[in-house]
Amino acid sequence: MNNHYLVVAIVSLLILLVNVSTSCAQRQVYIVYLGEHRHSDSGKQTWEEIEEMHHSYLQAVKGSKEEAKACIIYSYKNVINGFSALLTPQEAATISEMEGVISVFHSHPTKSRLHTTRSWDFISLLEANWDATRSPINQDRFLRRAGYGKNVIVGVLDSGVWPESQSFNDEGMEPIPSSWKGIARMVWLLILLIVIGARYYLKSYEANFGPLDPKLDFRSPRDINGHGTHTSSTIGGRRVPNAAAIGGFGYGTATGGAPLVRLAIYKVCWPIPGQTPAEGNTCLDDDMLAAFDDAIADGVQVISVSIGGNTSRPYIQDGIAIGSLHAVKRNIVVACSAGNSGPTPFTVTNVAPWIITVGASSIDRVFSSPVLLGNGIQVQGETVTPHKLSMMYPLIYAGDAEIPGATNNETSGLCLSGTLSKELVQGKIVLCLRGYSLNVEKGLEVRRAGGVGLILQNPVDGISISVDAHVLPGTAVLSNDSATILNYIKSNKNPTARIVCARTVLGSKTSPFMAGFSSTGPNALEPNILKPDITAPGLNILAAWSEATSPTKLFDDNRVVKYNILSGTSMSCPHVAAAAVLIKATHPDWSSAAIRSALMTTATQTNNLGLPITDGTGDTAATPFHYGSGHFRPDKALDPGLIYDANYTDYLLFLCNYNSTVPSIDPSFTCPDDFPSPSDLNYPSIAVSNISSSGISIKRTVTNVGGGASVYKVRVEAPVGYTVEISPETMNFSSVGQRESFNIFIRPGSGLGNGYAFGWYTWSDGIHSVKSPIVVSSQ
């Protein structure tokens, strides 16, 4: 009898679990965006009133207040008005039709990911090369002028921070500035004067993946991934002598771009269960929106976001775009990574025109580790692996050393986990082709099979190699050069090779060039806004690291480092954020658009040899689709001469082109019957797609910030096949702050193809050069 009841109870429990599982499977996290908070004349709404309003939307579809409260995840209360909740698709669709709702969109659990020293020295050396009047000895000149970013507060949305790093040593720093309104929490038993705030956002992550596994991450702002520590120290790390990656690579003084800046950490990225940390974290939209809402209220002046997806989304369905818009309304500068899906066209992300979108390029440092073949041929390679091979070893191609049936035509030769034969690999160097797994995982497989070394085909075509700290001797060779090695293997009965010990080489010519992985335009969401805006160092960047993880982030790698080398637009973004800090410190009254303009119009399109910056192949000149306005020059950006300014209202007018609910974003604004086209946004670059044969006229307005009386004359480099006329050709300024407008008329010639053409126009007063790209295509 007891057994009977036990069976019934178990069956009933299983049925209940199935029902619950089915219900949960149907429910997903959705963000309900309601725009700005509407504050009445009597004052701000209380948090209880805001929550009650948000619950009312949910109660309408859930049926009860209790269930409405149970399903809500975030209620945004500071600046952003909205909430996130567990909803079925039908419930989300119903709420989207309710009054006051601007958008309802799924907070996808894996759509947004992390886009993942010498770089600042390189920038200073480039400044010296570009400006014959400047010596590298004076590389601190602009830092001193900007007070090293003193008392500017940067919010960093990332994977947290490792506060014990020497890069965050606060010795000699003054008290926390009064502009900080956030919470100083003793989350790591110490309060720092550089990392002045730290929060973490976990609710949506746990709603999607269940409780955080404490073996995978800390339930705190502490960084177990390393990425957030790396980006934060790139922005504001103190000067640390004798810093280096594992093996001593990149040895020198590590520093952030603004060493006296204050950092506020907002941990929004977390490990995906079932994946290795090396495969990257996920960052959910509603967690990020909560971080934006807090950062704005906390009083940050710059926000750095090295996060994004692989594709662009509509502005009002993109958590980063929404959060950034509310930040920019308060003149907070927002810098975002452009993405790592290049060089494929139309891959650039974070394309909202109120964001500074940053591509990635190289610096003048390489980590040379050639491969010496048995026939005497030397193939160039790069690595930051400290292991040495002092003699020649047998060499084998992975495709010839696989366990039968472990691979197919697509996966053969890739050194995927569990595919290599120990009998065939033991004691040999293995050539692995790219694809399907991480570079460092291929090295792990070679080691498992008993190999002594790894030669890796570079995952990206061209000359940009992202180096790795492999778990055994290993180096990466250019993708084309892997064919040379494979031909040698196939044509020799007993092929041999040696991987030469790696060394750090400075002063590499030619630099910078665009990283092959850096996402490129055209802008898939709005081709009449050029993106990315600018490029900065993002290839093989040394910065601080979390001591809770290894340099490879593999579970089987037990090495611990204080500094590590990473590549990605994740690394270039904080460089530009730091430059924005220095401009903000120098010109505290400048708008976010003015700071972006200063960075863009003073950028360069030439390398350290005075030649055009190339794309990732090294052979072809890059275009504005690769680097926007060019490579940033922080020193020049402090004194740009003229700036293209824009404000929150300009961005709302821009949104009128797409969204009839703009009035709901801000109750004080209504789209006029006649609003400007996207090309007419007062942007520091010009992009026009599908110009008709009659041409197009575009207006721009500049503000004098360079001095009193000045006369600017324009010089035009028209796109091939087009005529460009600018009127007037001369602008006279008598005072700082004076604004002048001009018109740009662009007309296509006959017989043009469907492709894009590129040109430039430059305003100059003999001291300042204010340069803007022109990107056009015709019908």
UniProtKB/TrEMBL annotation:
Active-site feature positions: D158, H227, S570
Biological-process GO terms, alphabetical: proteolysis
Positions of the Inhibitor I9 domain: 29-109
Peptidase S8/S53 domain location: 149-616
Domain PA, first and last residues per copy: 414-481
Similarity comment: family membership: Belongs to the peptidase S8 family.
Descriptive protein name: Subtilisin-like protease SBT5.6
Organism: Sesamum latifolium
